[in-house]
Design a protein that fits this description.
Blueprint (H helix, E strand, L loop, with lengths): L4 E9 L3 H8 L7 E4 L15 H4 L5 E9 L4 H14 L4 E6 L3 H7 L7 E3 L2 E5 L11 E5 L11 H13 L5 E5 L5 H8 L4 E6 L2 H13 L5 E5 L15 E5 L2 H11 L9 E7 H13 L3 E8 L2 E7 L2
Parallel strand pairs: 6-7, 8-9, 8-11, 9-10, 11-12
Antiparallel strand pairs: 1-3, 1-4, 2-3, 5-6, 12-14, 13-14
């Protein structure tokens, strides 16, 4: 390979190989999968097999992609961490070509102020002077998903700017770094309850909310909707930037937490899965209100009439 590359490898149980590979393929179709679970010595070449293969782990598979130096490695890592955690897939992540302890700082050179309509996402360490009427979100994502650079986050925030306002009570499912919760607060929402299955993400989101001066954000851990707090009158807006499989799982039950006419903004959906999510939403009693596209990603806003 020309240039400098980092080999990013995710090790999972063989039973989770297909699901994990589908997540990683959202970033790069050039997957290298090492899976020896079905390997057999039967056959004419059995005696010629290398010892490394003979002694290979049969219970786990390794899925690798090669990230060029001009790409934002941290964005790849945070995406994989967030999506595999949301799917409940245990994994081990490894890097070759860049020391693990170095990427957390090296990625910062890629994170610059990102204008998203009225909202601008600004790195917490960056000097930035906001203009009149501009909504600035300062974020330090740490090890949690959500810098505003990924299409899934941008699509949600595009819709939120037209939907969230004064008086809203917002539910953020799979909050990651807390960027969407902070956006809701800055857009005028009265209260935001943010949840993530990953305790690290919850800690990061809580700190980002504090440093952003958003005292109306409450963060906690939750396995999808299990653990989400019911509030009087229900949430008036719900945002969920996760993955299609998890969205489909939550659709039959999420209405029990919401006000009757509350819109739900869904993202993390690849185009190929959009119809599947739309059909699941229809089966759960929702109608489509809005669809936004960017590259291979789709965000939906649905609601009940």
């Amino acid at each position: 390979m020309a240039g400098n590359w980092t080999k990013l490898t995710v090790k999972v149980k063989t039973a989770d190989t297909e699901r994990a590979a589908s997540v990683i393929s959202m970033l790069d179709n050039g997957l290298m999968i090492e899976d020896y679970s079905d390997f057999s010595l039967n056959g004419m070449y059995g005696e010629l097999v290398d010892d490394a293969i003979l002694n290979a782990d049969r219970e786990h598979a390794a899925i690798s992609i090669f990230v060029p130096e001009e790409k934002n490695l941290a964005q790849y890592i945070e995406f994989i961490d967030a999506k595999l955690t949301a799917l409940g897939i245990p994994y081990e992540r490894m890097l070759e070509g860049l020391e693990e302890e170095n990427w957390a700082d090296s990625w910062k050179k890629y994170f610059k102020p990102i204008p998203l309509g009225r909202i601008t996402v600004v790195p917490a360490w960056e000097d930035y002077t906001e203009s009149e009427g501009e909504v600035v979100i300062r974020i330090d994502p740490g090890m949690a998903f959500g810098t505003g650079t990924h299409e899934t986050t941008r699509l949600v925030m595009k819709i939120m700017q037209d939907v969230v306002g004064t008086g809203d009570r917002v539910l953020d499912v799979g909050c990651g770094s807390g960027i969407l919760s902070i956006a809701a607060s800055k857009l005028g929402a009265d209260s935001i309850n943010a949840y993530d299955i990953d305790p690290v993400a919850v800690k990061v989101a809580r700190e980002n909310a504090r440093t952003s001066g958003c005292n109306n954000i409450e963060t906690d851990t939750s396995d999808l909707l299990y653990g989400v707090k019911h509030i009087k009158g229900g949430y008036t807006v719900c945002v969920a930037n996760i993955v299609a499989d998890i969205i489909i799982r939550m659709l039959p039950d999420v209405h029990t937490f919401l006000a009757p006419t509350a819109p739900i903004i869904l993202s993390g959906i690849v185009r190929e899965r959009a119809d599947e999510v739309i059909n699941a939403a229809r089966d759960a009693g929702y109608t489509g209100l809005r669809t936004e596209y960017e590259n291979d990603w789709v965000a939906l806003m649905i609601g009940r009439e």
